[in-house]
Design brief:
189 residues; mainly alpha; two-stranded antiparallel ribbon; two-stranded parallel sheet; 6 strands
Amino acid sequence: SASLSPLLVESELFGHVRGAYTGADTSRVGLLELADGATVFFDEMGDIPPSVQVKLLRVLEQHEVTPVGDTRPRPCNFRMIAATNRDLVQCLHEGTFRRDLYFRLASYEISLPALRERPEDIPLLTERFLQTAKLPQGAAAFTKAAMAELQRRPWPGNVRELRNAVEHAAIMARGLPIGPEHLPESRDL
């Protein structure tokens, strides 16, 4: 994440050895080494700091990870799935994303249109979010009017915003059928 320091991100991903930095009282295995043989999902790949991009590329190319403060690489092999809401090609032109890492990641791209461009997905997503919401009174169904309102909205926050709206509406409805009056105010951010 862009809000985390590169050292903290590196420590979380690659691990660290005792004494690698102030506060590193014990050695710690990183998330990538723990994921050996599995699949890793990177959300917001476009926000990874440049210094971490270099190390991540090395891991993907050489299938080994070197913990912060160590010189000995450790074998590490995983499949990576990465997502971002940023235009990585634009980031390449701006110099905020490494070209070699982009081409390493872009072996198979899936472009998912914004939620506002696929309103037909909203009923299925809404049903799923109702099922997984931890509501003390249980989840009621959305009325046709409420569903029509959901499908009409622009959803600048995409699926995350929809999930929050569904949970908000279910809480406000308190087990009753969910109508438009239970939905949070639409925000056009």
